[in-house]
């Protein structure tokens, strides 16, 4: 049985919890395949201050919460670039990531028509994105020693009819 959750814009407290979740997931899933320098770069680039800067540039941050506990979050650019999408490990494979992505698309679609989504997926997230219809758009890449997989998804012309 799945307990209900709500998705809403991130508050400052949500951002703190989101960065904590991101850091925990990174240590568990990303860091084993990264060197120490890459780990440092990753942590320096993913802070509350960095998230607030992206929010000021129009990135949407949404939190999925249950009884004030953060279960996951998404940050997505106005152009459809999925910057971050993290879900508590014990809540994965229950549709929460899919729901966060749908909410993120809905949040940015009010301003402009988005034709394509893109993401720099970590190695462990590739399968998740593939199940949502994303395809690799290039060979695996590395940024400061941080491995990622460029992926895209073309959206239907009229999302209301899809």
Tell me the structural class: alpha+beta
CA distance, first residue to last residue: 28 Å
**If you average the pLDDT, what whole number results?**
91
- Top-tier CATH class of one domain: Alpha Beta
Largest sheet: 8 strands, mixed
Content of β-strand: 25-35%
Number of helices: 5
CATH architecture of one domain: 3-Layer(aba) Sandwich
Low-confidence segments, given as residue ranges, are: none
- Tally the beta strands: 8
Secondary-structure element series: EHHHEEEHEHEEE
Helix content: 25-40%
Shape: globular
CATH fold field value of one domain? Aminopeptidase
User: What Rg, in angstroms, do the CA atoms define?
Assistant: 15 Å
Short description:
Helix content is 36%, strand content 28%.
Question: Top keywords for this entry?
Answer:
162 residues; alpha+beta; eight-stranded mixed β-sheet; 36% helix; globular; N-acetyltrans/Recomb-assoc; GNAT family N-acetyltransferase
């Amino acid at each position: 049985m799945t307990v209900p959750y709500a998705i809403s814009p991130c508050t400052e407290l949500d951002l703190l919890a989101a960065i904590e979740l991101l850091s925990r997931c990174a240590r568990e899933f990303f860091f084993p395949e990264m060197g120490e320098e890459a780990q440092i770069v990753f942590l320096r680039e993913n802070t509350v201050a960095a998230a607030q800067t992206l929010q000021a540039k129009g990135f949407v941050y949404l939190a999925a919460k249950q009884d004030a506990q953060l279960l996951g979050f998404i940050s997505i650019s106005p152009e459809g670039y999925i910057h971050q999408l993290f879900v508590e490990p014990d809540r994965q494979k229950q549709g929460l990531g899919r729901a966060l992505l749908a909410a993120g698309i809905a949040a940015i679609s009010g301003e402009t028509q988005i034709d394509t989504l893109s993401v720099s997926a970590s190695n462990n997230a590739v399968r998740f994105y593939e199940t949502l219809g994303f395809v690799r758009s290039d060979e695996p890449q590395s940024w400061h020693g941080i491995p990622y997989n460029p992926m895209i998804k073309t959206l239907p012309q009229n999302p209301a009819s899809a």
